[in-house]
Design a protein that fits this description.
Blueprint (H helix, E strand, L loop, with lengths): L1 H36 L3 H25 L5 H20 L25 E3 L6 E3 L14 H6 L4
Antiparallel strand pairs: 1-2
Helix pairs in contact: 1-2
Bound molecules: zinc ion (2 copies).
One zinc ion (ZN) binds next to loops.
Length: about 150
């Protein structure tokens, strides 16, 4: 009986110490986690207080409510979106119908607007209003090219 009496308080103390360690760990973890997800110090305080007050239950609530993305993920996503947007903006469009075309289209596939010309000398794509071919320096007859094939 004497041994049980001396062991029980030690077991309880150990259990309490373990509980405190877990509590402390999840408080620290929550604080680090919310810092990577929000810049708002009020949100940091709220998230940490939740775990300080309600321990594991507070952690469960926090895990449900926390922002899905970390700041890094949100930043990366915004970069990707920006790059995508830029790509769309840089894509050439038909000046006549605004249909999306490719850089090397000679004609708009939607409205048949002539977009580019071909150099008679070197067969490379040239802009309609260029007076010389930049590739072979051959002179071009621009007005004839702009009025179309019939001229
Ligand atoms: Zn077009
Ligand atoms: Zn040429």
């Amino acid at each position: 009986m004497g041994t049980l009496r001396s062991v029980a308080p030690v077991a309880v103390a150990g259990f309490v110490a373990f509980g405190l360690a877990v509590w402390f760990s999840i408080i620290v973890w929550t604080f680090m986690d919310i810092r990577s997800r929000s810049r708002d110090k009020v949100v940091w305080g709220f998230a940490t207080a939740l775990v300080v007050l309600f321990n594991v239950f507070g952690l469960v609530v926090y895990l449900i409510l926390r922002p899905h993305e970390t700041l890094m993920q949100a930043y990366e996503r915004s970069l990707e979106e920006e790059a995508l947007l830029q790509e769309i903006e840089e894509r050439p469009i038909c000046p006549n119908c605004r249909h999306r075309v490719e850089q090397d289209y000679r004609m708009c596939p939607n409205c048949l607007q002539k977009l580019k010309d071909i150099c008679m000398n070197c067969d490379r794509l040239v802009e309609l209003d260029w007076t010389v071919c930049p590739f072979c320096t051959a002179e071009r007859k621009v007005p004839v090219a702009l009025t179309g094939e019939s001229a």
